[in-house]
Amino acid sequence: KWNNGAALIDESRQAIRGVGDLLSHVLRRSSLRVDWSRLDGVRPMLNQYRTSGYIDEPVALGQYLSEVLADVFPFAMAAGASGVYPFAWPVYPTKTDAMASLDTSVDPELERTSAISYEGSADVATDIELRYSWNPQTEGYQVTRSVAGEVSVADPYRTAIRQLVGPLSRYGIRRRVISTTVVHDAYTANKVLLAQAARYGQPSRVVQYLAPSRYGWLRRGDVVTLTDAEVSASAQVCLIESVAWREDGLRIALRYVEAGG
C-alpha cells in the first residue's frame, strides 16, 4: 500500500508532484523523439497543477496522456519538426498575455480566408462537477466540487463564477461531470474546474487567415490579438488553434477567447 508521499523522482532527484514534471518523466522513458525546449517552456505553468495517482494495468502512453491527463488538465500533445511536445491552453487569457498582434489594417499581407464559424455548441456546460481524491481501498471518490453560473447556499463545495453567468442565462443548466484519479487536493481541483469552464462554458468562434512567413514562429496554443474591421474584431483575444505551412503561405486558425458573463 502507498497512500502518502511521492513515489517518483525527476531528473534532478526531486519528488514529482506537478503535471509538467510528470509529462517530462514519462516522455524521457519513452522511445518518442521529444521537443524538450517546448516541453520545458510549458513545464512551469503545468506544474501549477499538482497530480498523483497510480497505474495498475498496462496502458499505451498516448492513451494515458490524452484520456487520463489531457482530458482533465489544460494541455494537448502535438508533433513538430523537433519531436512531440505538450502545449498548454491558457485559461481566460487577456490582452496582456498576447505574444503578437494580428491587424489587417496594418499588415496588408494578412488575409482572412474563411467566414467566422461557431464550434462547441453541443458541448456547452454551465454546471461542471469534478469528482476527485480517489481512494483505491474503498474504490470511490472522496470529494466532489463544482462550478456554475448561480450560487448554491446549501453546498459549500459549489462555487458560482461570473464566466458562467451569461452562458447559464442563454443555455440553461447543462451539466458536465469529470471523474479523475489524478487529482487529490482542493487547490488543483479548483484550477481544473476553472480550466474546464473556460473550455466548455460556451461556444467559441473560429476563423482562418493566410499570413506571411514572418509569423512562422507562432505555435498552437499561443495567445494573440486580432484586429479586423470586416469581422468587427478590435484587439480580440484569440488562441492559435492550428498553424500549417501551405504552398500559398502560412495558414493560421484562430479561436476567439469568449469572456463569458
Structural class: alpha+beta
One letter per element, helices H and strands E, the order comes to HHHEEEEEEEEHEHEEEE
Measured as a percent range, the helix fraction is 10-25%
Averaged pLDDT, please? 89
Strand content: 25-35%
The major beta sheet can be summarized as: 7 strands, mixed
Q: What coarse outline follows from CA principal-axis ratios? A: flat
CA radius of gyration is: 20 Å
N→C terminal distance: 46 Å
Description:
Helices cover 20% and strands 32% of the residues. The chain is an alpha+beta fold and 261 residues long. The strands form 3 sheets. Strands 3, 4, 5, 10, 11, 12 and 13 form a 7-stranded mixed β-sheet that branches. A 4-stranded mixed β-sheet has the order 8-7-6-9, covered by helices on one side. The mean pLDDT is 89. The longest helix is centred in the last third of the chain and has 15 residues, at 186-200. The protein is built from 5 helices and 13 strands.
Put the structure in a nutshell.
The chain is an alpha+beta fold and about 260 residues long. The protein has five helices and 13 strands.
